[in-house]
Amino acid sequence: MKKKKFLSVALVAAMTATLMAGCGSSSDGGNDGGNKGGATTGGQKVHINVYRDCFNLASSDTAQVKKVEDAINKYLDEKGANVEISLTEASSGEYAEKANLALANKEINLLWTASWLGTVGTNDLVPAESVYDITDLLKGTALYSSMDAGQWEATKYNGKNYFIPVYKDNVEGYDFMFRQDLLDKYGFDQTKVKKLADLEPYLAKAKADGLKYPFLTQKTAMFYRWYINDFDFFTADNAANWVAVDRATNSVVNTIQTPQYKEFCTLMSDWSEKGYISEDEYTKLTPEQATSTKDWAVSWWTDIPVNDEADSRYGQDVTMQPATDRWAHSTSALGSCYCVTANSNEAQAKACIEFMGLLYTDSKLADMYTFGIEGEDFNYEGEGASKKVRQTDAGKYNHSMWESASATVVTPLYNEPDNKADLYKTFNGGANTSSAAGFRFDKSPVSAEYTACTEVFNTYGFALENGGFKASEVDAKIAEYQKALDAAGYQTVLAEFQKQYDAWKK
Q1: In whole angstroms, what separates CA 19 from the centre of its chain?
Q2: From residue 114, how far is each of 2, 166, 312, 349 by CA, in Å?
Q3: pTM of the entire structure?
């Protein structure tokens, strides 16, 4: 995802407007939060503004959000918490821009963010000094104890805690995803597939059957995913997979010049020539909903604790076969998280920690925050260990566990297993830990060159990784790709990566 670069500009604009208005600093750090007199202590509740993305609805129903906010505050009062919230959400298409402006205007205390998010993503917020260092505030809190210490270590920046990870599938691994009906039809044993090349007999049958997408890449450059056993692509940026840490040597490498990259691109080109990969993939014309059709045979899936979720997502029975190991690395635990904003004062920061501690340990609060009002937005089914949530069709308030609260406390949906929490703990606990876990690359010293190199990827790398060239052309195209990268300043970027990683290792 190409990240917009107006975070700092907006912040400067907001600061300029404040100075022009002749406003001095206030005792609450300049943030009244738009909130009922601002943050106070001394017996009164500390008010915080919470800002989150609304993924599951095209637009937010502000009336229902206010109803949920009121219900949450009533419950917080019943629990004796010294905090109350104002809840704001924005649809995914406009979330980054709206959150950025609200952040610049100091209207947020607790912000939902993610490593992959543009503009207000984790890699944008830290360099912009927009997040509060909560390292010392976490000590001895219910929030800190809600997950193992490894989660907090994996999400540190420069040895400090700025982010509160949502405890979900916080490691990364990938599967081959097969249509079960075709496995049955072809009599193909997917468990014998250990590497990409093992798919060829299956793909040949799918091609002979006339399928348009025997190997469905979902117009995604997949070197970044299929080769994570060999490399830690610590940029968390698909368009910057030209640099990584080689797991075998624990050193920064130019992946474009590795045998693995040539192997992968050659195989994709060969499959394209054989008709296993459609030209729609490298021309980016593959329909977004292709995985919900009968036009494909095998694709990819990000491994999660409950892979059966894919059946309902795609409307058909699919079967997964592991393609890679699972890895815990610098960005895997930041795929969904929260941060306290830097404009918050200490009382507000502590209130954010208190609220999040309850959210991550109290099922009733977590369910309200995730699903809304019981009897309107969702209903409970079953009791005890078999208690489940079934969301209604009202469509007024609708969130998912992964972007809301810990998997250990959010009540499972009606179609999820009773032991969902245990599955997540096992899933996260069974992963390998990358040697580069905890390293964060600051691209600001080479931001212009970095951006230029991602544009070169869009010209060469994407097509190479989706079969856009003949197999006989791969060597020449990789050479052209490298030349274009170098002209864009790649060697400068690579040297900066190496410098920062060597310093971090010491």
Answers
A1: 36
A2: 14, 10, 25, 19
A3: 0.74
